[in-house]
Specification:
globular, about 35% helix, two-stranded antiparallel ribbon, single chain, about 425 residues, 13 helices, alpha+beta
Length: about 425
C-alpha cells in the first residue's frame, strides 16, 4: 500500500520527469542545452539541486552519487547549472503546489503573507549591488540578497519569490511583481507589514482583483484621510483621486478637491499615463484602526468588505501573518538555506526556489500527519523543525518507511502566549571549502 509521503515524493519526481520531456521552456538555449546524453542530465540536476545539503559542492556530489569513482566534477555541475533558466524552478514550485490543494481560511480565502528577508552571501567587495560597507554590524563589510516571498498561512507553503540585490532592494516593486504573477486562483488575501504600504501596491492588488490587508504607519493614514490626528479606533472607507499634476484646473472632479492626492514623478505608480497630465486614478479602500496593547494602535489598509471582515477578524488575520516569520527561520536554518553553492545572484535564485520546493514537500507531509488527541494541559503539535529533517532524509531515501509514525512521535506543546524578542545580527556564510554536513 502506497503511503501519503510516498505519493508526495512520487508526485514531485513525476513533475520533473514531465519537464524533462520538453526542456526547451526551461533552458537558455532550447536548441542545444541538455540535448546530449550526460551523467548530469536535466532530471539528475533537478534532483540534485533539490536534495543538496549545506556541504561543499564536491562532497554533495559524492554523497548524491554514492561515492562512486565516476562522480561528475564540480566543473561539470557548474556547466550544466548554467543552462537552466529561472522559469524551470518557478514552474516546478507552482506545479508541485497545484497537485496538493491549498487550505482555505473560513473555507473561502487564501491568507497569503508577503514579507521580505535578507540572505548573507559570500563576501565580494567588487559587487557594488550587494556589498555593504563596514559598519557597526560588520568590520569587514558583507554581501546580501533581499528576497520577498509569498507564503500561504493555512497550508504553510511558499507560493512565489522575488530576489533582489541587497543594495537595490525595492519591496514595493517586488510586491507588485508577485501580485501580477499570482496564478493560484481562489480568493487570495495578501497580508503585508507596513513596509509595503504604497499607492502602487494597492493599485496592483485592485487591478488584479486581489484582496489585501497591509499595515500602515500613522503618518501615512493621516495623509490618506487628510487629518492631523487619529482616533483610538476607526473603520472607514476612503475614496481618493491620484494625479501627477498639482494644477486644480486640470482636475476632472473639482467638487472633490479634498480627495485629490499628488504623486510626484519620482514615485512609482504604474496606472497613470506619464504623458497625460490630465490622467487620474480613482482608488477606494478601507482603513481599520484598533488597539493591540496599552497605548499602542495599529492601522490596516484593506479592500475587504466590512460585512464579511469585521475589525476583530482583520485583527485576527493580521496576527496570523507572524507565520511567515517562523517559516523564514525554518527555511534558513532547519533545511540549510543560509549556505549556498554559488556567488552569482542568478544561481543563488535557483537554490532559493529549490529550497522553497523542499520546504513545501516537508510541509505537505507534516500537515497530513495526525497527532493523537490525549488529555493534556496543552494542545500539542508536531515538532516542525525535526519533522522537516525527517522528511528531508526521506526525500534522500535515508528513511524509507513509517514516516508519519516517526514524525508523530516528536511533538511540542502549543503555548500561544509565549513571545521572544527578535535578534537582528549579520551571520556570515561559511566558506565553500569549510563545510561539513
Amino acid at each position: 500500500m502506497t503511503t501519503f509521503p510516498e505519493t508526495v515524493k512520487t508526485t514531485l519526481w513525476n513533475i520533473i520527469d514531465e519537464m524533462s520531456l520538453s526542456t526547451s521552456s526551461f533552458v537558455k538555449n532550447p536548441d542545444s542545452d541538455f540535448s546530449r546524453k550526460r551523467k548530469l542530465d536535466f532530471q539528475t540536476m533537478m534532483h540534485l539541486m533539490i536534495s543538496m545539503e549545506s556541504g561543499c559542492l564536491n562532497h554533495e556530489l559524492l554523497k548524491f552519487f554514492g561515492y562512486d569513482t565516476s562522480t561528475p566534477t564540480s566543473s561539470a555541475f557548474y556547466q550544466q547549472r548554467a543552462k537552466f533558466s529561472v522559469s524551470a524552478f518557478r514552474h516546478l514550485l507552482q506545479e508541485f503546489n497545484s497537485k496538493f490543494p491549498l487550505e482555505k481560511f473560513n473555507e473561502t480565502y487564501f491568507l497569503i503573507a508577503c514579507d521580505g528577508s535578507e540572505f548573507s552571501i559570500p563576501r565580494n567587495p567588487t559587487d557594488q549591488d550587494t556589498f555593504h560597507e563596514p559598519n557597526g554590524k560588520s568590520a569587514s563589510g558583507f554581501n546580501t540578497l533581499h528576497t520577498v516571498s509569498l507564503y500561504e498561512l493555512s497550508s504553510k507553503r511558499y507560493l512565489d519569490l522575488e530576489v533582489q540585490p541587497g543594495r537595490l532592494k525595492n519591496e514595493f516593486q517586488a510586491a507588485c511583481n508577485l501580485m501580477d504573477r499570482y496564478s493560484y486562483g481562489g480568493n487570495p488575501v495578501f497580508i503585508a507589514d507596513r513596509g509595503f504600504a504604497s499607492y502602487n501596491v494597492f493599485a496592483h492588488a485592485i487591478e488584479n482583483r486581489l484582496h489585501f490587508m497591509i499595515r500602515a504607519k500613522d503618518v501615512n493614514v493621516q495623509r490618506y484621510l487628510g487629518v492631523d490626528s487619529l482616533p483610538d479606533s476607526l473603520d472607514t472607507s476612503v475614496e481618493l483621486f491620484l494625479t501627477r499634476s498639482q494644477s486644480k484646473k486640470k482636475r476632472k472632479h473639482p467638487e472633490k478637491a479634498s480627495q485629490y492626492r499628488y504623486i510626484g514623478y519620482a514615485c512609482a505608480f504604474d496606472y497613470l499615463n506619464p504623458n497625460d497630465r490630465y490622467d487620474e486614478y480613482r482608488m477606494k479602500f478601507r482603513i481599520v484602526r484598533f488597539q493591540v496593547a496599552d497605548g499602542i494602535f495599529e492601522n490596516i489598509i484593506t479592500n475587504l468588505p466590512a460585512e464579511i471582515f469585521s475589525a476583530d477578524m482583520i485583527k485576527h488575520c493580521y496576527h496570523l501573518r507572524w507565520g511567515i516569520e517562523t517559516a523564514f527561520r525554518d527555511l534558513k536554518h532547519t533545511i540549510g538555506t543560509t549556505q549556498f553553492h554559488s556567488k552569482k545572484t542568478e544561481f543563488i535564485t535557483f537554490e532559493l526556489l529549490c529550497r522553497l520546493v523542499l520546504y513545501n514537500f516537508c510541509s505537505i507531509i507534516i500537515l497530513h500527519t495526525a497527532v493523537k488527541d490525549r488529555k493534556r494541559k496543552y494542545t500539542y503539535q508536531v515538532d516542525f523543525s525535526l519533522a522537516m529533517k525527517i522528511c528531508f532524509d526521506f526525500l534522500k531515501e535515508k528513511v524509507v518507511s513509517n514516516i508519519e509514525s516517526l514524525i508523530s512521535k516528536y511533538i511540542l506543546p502549543i503555548r500561544p502566549e509565549r513571545n521572544y524578542a527578535r535578534q537582528h545580527r549579520v551571520q556570515k556564510p561559511a566558506g565553500f571549502s569549510y563545510r561539513y554536513v
